[in-house]
């Protein structure tokens, strides 16, 4: 269980990103070796070979620097009322999700995450943040099942909040708008006028 009101890091996130980077790099090297064995670039000018080889190397060099830099900025916190997530290498961002907005919490573990004994917790909301899918994802943690249960325990203690449309998640309010009776009266008058017109 994660301590309440204390920032914690996704301890497996850095090694997970590095493994992902290494797998992509190996795939590109394998494809490049296969093309070289076919002699595709054998007669190509040196500058063409440079355009093919240099950009991927620059991207991987940048990612190798960016991964630990991002890890140093990534933190989560479970408070009494909400979940907080801060991150950002160049621009600092902070996401806050109140427990009473959460509609679903799921835990998942992909094949790459399984190699490093990590998983993710998806936090889903209704009518909050203007997006579909998970509003927030706690990724790169080894105790993802425990975090999921910890979040669900807090969610169940709170009544769902109203969505952006103004209706509660558990149903529409029973009361009708005050203008409904006026509209019905107006419709009756129109019907009476039509009946008199046809009768005449």
Short description:
By secondary structure, this protein is an alpha+beta fold. It has helices spanning about 15-35, 45-75, 110-115, 145-155, 180-200; strands spanning about 75-80, 80-85, 95-100, 100-110, 120-125, 135-140.
What is the CA-CA span between the terminal residues?
A: 80 Å
Shape: flat
Strand content: 15-25%
Structural class based on helices, strands and sheet pairing: alpha+beta
What is the CATH topology classification name?
PH-domain like
CATH architecture: Roll
Report the order of strands and helices.
HHEEEEHEEHH
DSSP helix count?
Answer: 5
Rg on CA atoms, Å: 28 Å
The number of distinct structural domains comes to 1
Largest sheet: 3 strands, antiparallel
Mean pLDDT: 83
CATH class: Mainly Beta
**How many β-strands, per DSSP?**
6
Unreliable spans: 164-176
Query: What proportion of the residues is helical, as a percent range?
Result: 40-55%
The strand line-up of the biggest sheet is: 1-2-3
Oligomerization state: single chain
List the helices and strands and how they pair.
Layout lengths: L12 H25 L8 H28 L1 E4 L3 E6 L5 E6 L3 E7 L2 H5 L3 E7 L8 E8 L2 H13 L22 H21 L1
Antiparallel strand pairs: 1-2, 2-3, 4-5, 5-6
């Amino acid at each position: 269980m994660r301590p309440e009101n204390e920032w914690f890091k996704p301890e497996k996130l850095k090694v997970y990103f590095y493994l992902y980077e290494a797998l992509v790099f190996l795939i590109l090297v394998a494809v490049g070796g296969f093309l070289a064995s076919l002699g595709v670039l054998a007669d190509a000018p040196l500058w063409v070979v440079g355009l093919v080889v240099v950009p991927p190397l620059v991207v991987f060099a940048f990612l190798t620097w960016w991964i630990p830099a991002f890890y140093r900025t990534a933190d989560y916190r479970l408070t009494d009322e909400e979940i907080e997530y801060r991150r950002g290498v160049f621009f600092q961002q902070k996401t806050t999700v109140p427990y009473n907005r959460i509609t679903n919490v799921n835990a998942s573990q992909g094949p790459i995450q399984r190699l490093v004994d990590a998983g993710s917790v998806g936090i889903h909301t209704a009518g909050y943040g203007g997006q579909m899918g998970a509003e927030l994802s706690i990724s790169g943690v080894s105790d993802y099942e425990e975090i999921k249960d910890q979040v669900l325990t807090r969610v169940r203690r709170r009544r769902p909040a109203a969505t952006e449309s103004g209706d509660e998640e558990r149903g529409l309010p029973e009361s009708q708008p005050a203008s409904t009776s006026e509209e019905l009266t107006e419709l009756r008058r129109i019907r009476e006028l039509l009946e008199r017109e046809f009768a005449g």
